[in-house]
Amino acid sequence: MTAKNHKIIFHVDMDAFFASCEEALNPALKLKPLVVGGTREDKRGIVCCPNYLARAKGVRTAMPLTRALLLVPDGNFIRSTRGLYSDYSKRVRDIFYKYTPIVQPVSVDEAYLDVTGVLHLHNNDYKLLADRLRNEIRDTLKITCSVGIAVNKICAKIASKINKPDGVTVVPFGMEREFLSNMTIDKIPGVGNAAQLKLRKYGIELIGDILKFDQSFYDKEIKFHTSFLLNVANGKGSDNVKENDEVRKSLSKENTFYEDVSDREFLLSELYYLMEKCCQKLRKVKLKGRSITVKVKYFDFKVNQRSYTAAKYSNLDTDFYEDATLLLDKMLLNKKKIRLLGVKFSEFISGDEAVQESIFDDIDKKENLLNKLDTIRKKYDFGIVKFGRTIKLK
User: Fold this and answer.
1) Does 276 qualify as catalytic in the annotation?
2) Closest CA to 215 of 225, 207, 227
3) Do residues 114 and 100 make contact, with C-beta atoms less than 8 angstroms apart?
4) How far is Cα 30 from Cα 298, in angstroms, rounded to an integer?
5) Most buried of 63, 200, 235, 367, CB within 10 angstroms?
6) Which fold is adopted by the domain 250-390?
7) Regarding the domain with residue range 1-174, which homologous superfamily does it belong to in the CATH classification?
8) Where are the domains of the chain?
9) In sequence order, what are the beta bridge partners of 296?
């Protein structure tokens, strides 16, 4: 099982990561369906991560908790444990580096590994290497992962989803196009329901169907990310795993007021402004996050902060505003005046994956609009365009 004239890329995807970490911490949670995201009382919440017992009953990420309660009424429902997932993510990454120095984390629960140069340490057998990696993670951390093996990153990523949980899938080298051709289009990372509707309108059900049309057709009819689609259908993609490419930990903005404030409308306006500034920066550096923290410092200099982790990655302020508002409102309940307000985004996905997460999604129009606003603001001034939420009424 040797490699010739091409790289060997692993995509390692942790299995039901948040739920698995909670189960490792409390093994009793493995006995029943587990839903991480909120308690039974969190009626407005959504599912952040179900374990595999819950998934077998139809529970899915981003599903309303009220729906999940109907599907698994006897299940365990818990909120995210602060700091647990980042701790496990670091420990998993340490194991990666034991096997290869070329690691590119792309989120808290997945990474690409270039193992081409270390295969000689494992009898030139990439399957053996993958098994050793998986076994060490399982034995030391009590969680599992699935591995996709291919000559490029996109094929490895698609492959890692096939034999979950705790499985290995190899895309036959030189047969990437044939391997992908009979898979449904929803297997392409980032192709959601909106994208599928657009493609199925033209009879594109399988990845191989994409090749029925040429670039000009997609440029005219689909308009978004057409080169990416055609490359996937041909089994082509980047094999550039960025060595030691650490995902940025967080990005934050805050503002100290001239006078202590308790006016909710003013604070909401400032909150949205800070979120706009952060999200503009995220778009500039091609990052998307799914965790937001709202921080306040009260008049007595005591600090409070609340966080929320969404199911999907985004760099659009509109996707986080409602949740950020709920976080701020919780910290306003004590009626104390506020001298400082801040927001922080974290848990990022970067690079090509940031594009693939939203491909053809309903947010394409929002992204295009905000990208144009970013250009205008860069040329003139950030305040040249304002949303209604940031206009302070007197």
Assistant:
1) no
2) 227
3) yes
4) 41
5) 235
6) Dna Ligase; domain 1 (3.30.1490)
7) Reverse transcriptase/Diguanylate cyclase domain (3.30.70.270)
8) 1-174, 178-233, 250-390
9) 304, 341
C-alpha to C-alpha distance for 27 and 135, rounded to whole angstroms? 19
Same fold, 178-233 and 250-390: no
| pLDDT at residue number 384 | 45
The per-residue pLDDT for 375 is 58
Mean pLDDT of the chain: 86
What DSSP line would sit under 159-198, residue for residue? HHTTT-SS-EEE--TT-HHHHHHTSBGGGSTT--HHHHHH
Q: What is the pTM of this model?
A: 0.69
* 178-233, CATH topology level: DNA polymerase; domain 1 (1.10.150)
The pair of three-digit structure tokens given for residue 240, joined into one six-digit string: 């550039």
Among 157, 140, 153, which residue's Cα sits nearest to residue 94?
140
Strands (E), the chain: 9-14, 34-36, 49-50, 76-78, 103-107, 110-114, 145-150, 168-170, 250-261, 287-298, 303-314, 338-350
Which of 73-82, 92-101, 155-164, 358-367 is least confident?
Answer: 358-367
Does residue 390 register a pLDDT over 70? no
The secondary structure of 304-326 as a DSSP string is EEEEEEEEEEE--HHHHHHHHHH
Which band of pLDDT confidence, cut at 50, 70 and 90, is reported for residue 57?
Answer: very high
C-beta of residue 64 within 8 angstroms of C-beta of residue 38: no
Which of 22, 23, 41, 110 does the annotation list as catalytic? 110
Q: Can you name the residues that pair with 346 across neighbouring β-strands?
A: 250, 291
Burial class (CB in 10 A: 0-12, 13-18, 19+), 33: buried
Neighbours of 57 (CB within 10 A): 15
Spell out the residues 6+ positions from residue 288 whose beta carbon is closer than 8 angstroms to its own: 282, 313, 314, 315, 348, 349, 350, 354, 357, 358
Query: Which of the four pLDDT bands, split at 50, 70 and 90, describes residue 354?
Result: very low
